[in-house]
Amino acid sequence: xxxxxxxIVSAIVLLICFTQQANAKIWRVNNNANATNGSNLGGSPGFxxxxxxxxxxxxxxxxxxxxxxxxxxxxxxxxxxxxxxxLTKKLTIIGPxxxxxxxxxxxxxxxxxxxxxxxxxTGSSGSQLIGVHVGGSSYGVSINVxxxxxxxxxxxxxxxxxxxxxxxxxxxxxxxRVSTAxxxxxxxxGFPTDVIFNNxxxxxxxxxxVGYAMLECKNNVFAGPSISSSPSIRMYVGSFQxxxxxxxxxxxxxxxxxxxxxxxxxxADAAQFGTTNNNLVIxxxxxxFVAAGTSDGKYQLKPGSANGSDGTERGAYGGASVxxxxxxxxxxxxxxxxxxxxxxxxxxxxxxxxxxARIIK
Length: 361
What we know:
Elements: E1 2-4, H1 12-15, E2 26-29, E3 49-50, E4 72-75, E5 85-87, E6 92-94, E7 114-115, E8 118-120, E9 128-130, E10 133-134, E11 141-143, E12 148-151, E13 154-155, E14 159-161, E15 166-171, E16 174-175, E17 184-186, E18 193-198, E19 201-202, E20 206-207, E21 213-218, E22 221-222, E23 231-241, E24 244-245, E25 251-254, E26 262-263, E27 266-267, H2 270-273, E28 280-281, E29 335-342, E30 352-359
Parallel strand pairs: 2-3, 2-4, 4-6, 5-8, 6-9, 7-10, 8-11, 9-12, 10-13, 11-14, 12-15, 13-16, 14-17, 15-18, 16-19, 18-21, 19-22, 20-23, 21-23, 22-24, 23-25, 23-26, 27-28
Antiparallel strand pairs: 1-30, 29-30
């Protein structure tokens, strides 16, 4: 679209259109902001751009008196990492995504927002983490309360789940740690109820303690290395469906080895899912995936290579509902400006500016 307006154009202009509950506000966090009052980068003392998501009580999106329960915080891309911390109130935290310099039309600023770690603790039930790169040296995402959504994030370490909680949704994420260690770590006291783990790409393994059960594990790509003489995927689960397992030597233990509720999956060896219940064995898994692609794009399937239970492709990019499929670069379902251009010459009515934007569902 072409408009005539002042040159000061920011992605935040479109971000404020994101539907929110009544009276909820949208705040910005940018670690290049003024630590004193956040009045630079378009902020003001009364409506600051915060320097950190977590920090002191007067200038923290987590603890200050300005940011209220139910508000949304946009964690903006930066060359510097954001300090981690404990989230103690219900917030929706949205980052710009990841692999932004690899995939097309992602952002006019290809910097991710990298948070060293985050712990959802007392008071944060109902929070959402979307499009954020979580990448510390030893900690990742820790969930200690119920009703948490982690969606379209890149997680470099692990995701830890506390016991005695429920309603945890882990959707459309990229778990980047290539390791025989498990992607989800748990408490020895028990496992949450109603855990949904769908449309993720996992470069490691997913091994739950014996008897720990998920509600759903669907449309995932498991690309991790096999573990010698031990399962690379182990869980009890209500529905294990439309998943892809790339390593032919990986051992699978679903529902105590019974393969109950295991349908429409694809493995590289018959011992993994078998061939009943619409499970497939494809010895050369490379024939399923696109020939080349970006860090997350290469896990897309060739058209028609393996249809799942709903007629769409198996793996992270499948699913009857488009909004539930894996999204390249983890872009949030909000307007994204990926190009701004101008002639640089103003006329009597203003300066022509061309803005290219799109919304990822």
